[in-house]
Amino acid sequence: MAEAQPAQVQPQRYAFVNPPGGTFCTYSNHIQLLPTVFDISVFFGEVTSVSSEVVEVTQRAKVSLSWLEAKVLATWLLNNIKAFEANNGPIVPPKISAILDPTAAAFGESLEGKPAAKAGMPADADKSPKDQ
Hints:
The chain is α+β, with helices and mostly antiparallel strands. The chain has two helices and three strands. The longest helix is centred in the middle third of the chain and has 22 residues, at 67-88.
């Protein structure tokens, strides 16, 4: 008796449609993440002013993704970065001052390897409101 063959799924064709006025485009050199149990929002901003006291970031766009879509995006980004580096050499972050290092709060240490806040959280995020 022959084994049943699984049904083959036919790939769907995508039709990409631009909205009236074209697709929204912007520039970003600052990213913030806001995770919830349901999804994650990515805020794209641009550093528009820097002083010794304040780094001003103008928020340009917010994109919210389901966790599944965020994982797919992370995989695609990582694969593209690996391919870019294979062809062009490693991407090396520049030496920058701590005031401009957005990764300090996001990854637990700065680009320069200095300890920072917990991943993705402000330095006082683990304190209860009464402790602040």
